Amino acid sequence: MSQTERVIRIAKPKIPRNLPLVTDFDVKIYDEDQVAGKLISNCKIEGQNAEKVSFKNVAFRNVTFTDVSFGRADIEDVGFENCDLSNIDLSGSIFNRVQIENCKLVGANFTEASLLNVVISNSNGRYANFRFSHCKKLVIADSIFTYADFQSSEFNDNKFLDTELQCCQFSGTKLKGVDMSTCDISNIGVGIDEIRGACVSSLQAVSLSTLLGLKIKDPF
């Protein structure tokens, strides 16, 4: 089995069942606080600005984050479902065993973040910023990530499935071994060195041939 065909095994979040339910999150979070063992549902989290906050064994469902900055957070064994994280600042954060499903991530800031065992599915990540991030075992599926920025990131065992990646920026990011064959990658920002070794479809290969300065001409 080739590297591009290898199955990526993602460790799932370890979130206990029957977590205490929180439906009115009016707690002020400060630097280095811990939020653990909770089901936070059907509420808003707004006006929070803290660094190095620890989130562990937490499930967020139907939560809207507004004017929130949790830089350099430690996010482990956490799930986000039907949440709006648009424009949230999670720069420099560490993610491990995190699942993000059916969420809005428009303009979310993940610069310099480390993502391990992360699955993002059925989500809208337009204009999301992953610059200088370290992504290992990251899977993005059935999502919209047009104009997202992955510039100068480190990829290892990552995969994109049925995702809109039009106009995404990948300059400075090695895509060797990354499967993008089921995605729309039109007008992505990428060079020859970055795209070398990526798994693409035959149609995608034709469109990427412009990087080599080739002109495709039918013989008849």
Describe this structure in words.
- The chain is mostly beta strands.
- The protein has a single domain, classed as 3 Solenoid (Pectate Lyase C-like).
- Helix content is 5%, strand content 30%.
- It has 2 helices and 9 strands; from the N terminus they run βββββββββαα.
- Strands 1, 2, 3, 4, 5, 6, 7, 8 and 9 form a 9-stranded parallel β-sheet that branches.
- The radius of gyration is 19 Å and the shape is elongated.
- The protein starts with 20 loop residues before the first strand and ends in a 12-residue tail after the last helix.
- InterPro entries: 5peptide_repeat (IPR001646), PA_immunity-related (IPR052949).
- This is Pentapeptide repeat-containing protein.
- It holds the Pfam family Pentapeptide_4.
- It comes from Anaeromonas frigoriresistens.
Oligomeric state of shown chains:
single chain
Rounded mean pLDDT score: 93
- Distance N terminus to C terminus? 37 Å
Shape designation = elongated
SSE succession: EEEEEEEEEHH
Percent of residues in beta strands? Answer: 25-35%
Overall radius of gyration: 19 Å
Main sheet specs: 9 strands, parallel
Tell me the name of the CATH class: Mainly Beta
- What percent of residues adopt helix (DSSP H or I)? under 10%
CATH architecture: 3 Solenoid
The total tally of domains equals: 1
Tally the helices: what do you get?
2
Provide the low-confidence segments as ranges: none
The SS-based structural class is mainly beta
Count of DSSP strands: 9
CATH superfamily placement? E3 ubiquitin-protein ligase SopA
CATH-defined fold name: Pectate Lyase C-like
